[in-house]
Amino acid sequence: MANTAESITCGGFVFYNNFDSANLARVELVKVPETSEKDGNEAESKSCKSSTSEETTDYEFNLWTKHDCHETQFQNNNRTWFYFGVKASAPGLYVKFNIVNLNKQVKMFSQGMCPVFKIVPGHLHWERIRERPTFSLDQKGNDFILSFLYSTPENSKAITYIAFTYPFSYTDLQNYLRRVDARIAKRTITCADDVYYHKECAIKSLEGRRMDIITISSFHNISTEREERLNNMFPEKNEERPFKFWNKKIIFISARVHPGETPSSFVFNGFLNFLLNREDQIAINLRRIYVFKLIPMLNPDGVARGHYRMDTRGVNLNRVYLNPSVKDHPTIYAARNLIRYYHYTYELPKEDEVSSVSFENGEDTLAIIDSSCTIANIVRDTTTRLLQHVTLMTLDEKHKDQPEIFQECTLLKTNLDDMPQGGGEDLCNSTEESDNSVELKSDKNTYTAVGIGQLPKEDSGLYLYIDLHGHASKKGVFMYGNYFDNPEDTITCMLLPKLMSINNPNFHFTSCNFTERNMYIIDKRDGMSREGSGRVAVYKLTGLIHSYTLECNYNSGRLVNTIPARIRDGINKTISPMFVPPKYTPAVFEAVGAALGPSILDLTCNNPNSRLPNSQYRSLRGVKSYLKLAYVNNLSAPFSKSLHKDGNDIISQDFYNLKGIKSQISDSSVGPKNSMKSETSLIKKSCIIRRSTSLYTAVKRIKSQKAS
Description:
Elements: E1 2-3, E2 7-10, E3 13-16, E4 24-31, H1 40-45, E5 59-65, E6 83-87, E7 94-102, H2 106-110, E8 116-120, E9 127-128, E10 134-137, E11 144-151, E12 159-163, H3 170-185, E13 196-204, E14 210-217, E15 222-226, E16 243-245, E17 249-255, H4 263-275, H5 281-289, E18 290-295, H6 300-305, H7 330-343, H8 350-355, H9 375-401, H10 403-414, H11 433-436, E19 438-441, E20 446-449, E21 462-471, E22 477-480, H12 487-503, H13 517-520, H14 534-542, E23 547-553, H15 586-602, H16 620-636, H17 658-666, H18 672-707
Parallel strand pairs: 5-7, 17-18, 17-21, 21-23
Antiparallel strand pairs: 1-2, 2-3, 3-6, 4-5, 6-12, 7-11, 8-9, 8-12, 10-11, 13-14, 14-18, 15-16, 19-20, 22-23
């Protein structure tokens, strides 16, 4: 066996490992074919034999995949992703591959998961292998061995590429974005509804790869002023920043923080293609109302290196959002800075403002580092920051004295169904203030960035945040949301996932999770809490209710939704229901991304071709009523019972535990007097809930009597 940097030669076969996302470590020949000559008839008859018989295989190889951060000081135990190429010694051979050192993925492969392959030249599209693989554990029970059969192509010069699942490498992304750029460049702007598209490099990764961010909107409310260059970001000086937009909320979507979770890239591509559609009225309305900030690949180094979960230093980047380092986690540092920049509606983050100021000889002498900022901008930003500082301090004092005023205003605002562009969301919890204040120190002065995450939510420039992922064990496509004590916030958070289940047949609303435990659970693999994930950190930073993680199983789901027809299609064009969930392909994932568009517009009743009127809920108000009824049913159910058997389902008993809510309210920092008021209001709500349940039961009984 010869081993080179470019390829591995073993048993007359050549195994390729010299391309983006490949991660083959070594190969070992297990079975050598017999030397007897075979005629054409014997070779042809082998295709009729059972693939499970050992006699059908001509060759057998053991293959080792690389660990994340292989052969470095950061090497860890993530070994699920594999991707390699192989050129056979002869056509028409049956070969058995054993991937011998994978992580235990018994559940996924017992559910029918299959690797994928393509042949170049010849079979250029990725497809799942036709024979179902087998798996076993080694004698020590440490390593998971995956075995599958492969038939060598007729073209002896062809290379077969085999991967854990449908790959989408860093090179694939750059080629894809170049094609999008070329398509956009050919267009001419004819009206204000046309596509505004801008791509730029937000920051370079540890190994110098681009982390691109794409801005998409229409030309409505566009200004002549460009966004500022944030500190330590936007290294390509020849790339201009995009223009600012006034009175348009930001929707922020990112993908591939975990390199091996390639379904997230296909969901991202589906959403991007939908947004760029110039003819679809839903896409036109999305661009007219919102500005989209899209990051296609948060971990380009891990993707290029063929990692499954970590970056090149063995860090799970989806656990460092609370305090990322520009030196150690540059891509997450950039994403968090951008989120905060758009949350404050194009205002420079306070750390960046202070970091652009130097203090010499104890005097307040300003030295502006960023030459792109004009004096007028500096004056404006400084004035705004000081006014904001004073306003927030005043609001904080009022909040301590009169919390019920803010609660009443909140309930009034969240009950409005026709609030445009997602406005009218609640204020942040005051208990987060101590966690979100950041101290900035110089030689003689200490500055505190007060108010991070404390702005009223209706003043936030953000409307929605979604981080796209793949999932190995839990079936289907689903979302994780955050936990809220306030029932109105809970319903608001659950709306988008419920609307996704109406707009996409493969979205599993009953698999969504909004529990508090899911926000702070410790990951067994790296010992880090989900509190540092994008979804939870964005909520803590901005108070954003619509902050989600979207998860896609690699293989398949456990149910299929019946999708109602759009109002312009007529009720007779309801999509025919499928009773067996399909095997997931890039096309299925892209359809999930495309379904995000109409679901976002359904949130504010701005969808011109909605499915809601033809659904069982009839309207957005009907969906809210359904969610409230589910909420009431779980509150009124016995504490010892859960509505669903699946512990991961959306309406779990620990989520809606009334005793838990009481204890959290009484333990909060509002004082004993306010605690009594909170408990009193909670008891009133409980009475209303019981009355609502009784009324619903009585109406249902009357209707059943009339029907009989």
